Amino acid sequence: MYDELTKGDLIKMQEEIDYRIKELRPKLIEDVQTARAFGDLSENFEYKCAKQEKNRNESRIRYLERMIKTAQVIEDTSTEETAGLYDSVEIRMENTGKTRVIQLVTTLRQDALKGWISKESPVGKAIMGRKAGECVKVDMGNGKGYTIQILSITKGRDDGSVPIGSF
Hints:
alpha/beta; about 35% helix
């Protein structure tokens, strides 16, 4: 299965890879060498921490490279009236009456606590391509779900303000 990412996602990921390789990697290698000079490695906490941070950086580089290699590039095909990528959507939960504004993003940028909802999530799937005023069923699987009403849609674009998530 491929991750559906935008050109903007790929650019941000490549920028992070470049930063991690060109700037962060040399600093982390130097930190490991400095900590190694402190003495006995079996009791050297600074060395263990520096090594761990270096390994975390290398792991993130591999993760991003793999994401770029396997990505399926998508574009927003929504109309002016329908919800699409990077649009802010005001929704109301029919069962509670509570309203909330969310922004539809790619899976790589999701952060539900900040209101960035993946287009692949149950809510994202229910809202994508729908118009303001519509009531949609959010399918939670196993015959469970709930209804939300789309109150308004504010068209957005990928301005780079939504960062790519960590893993």
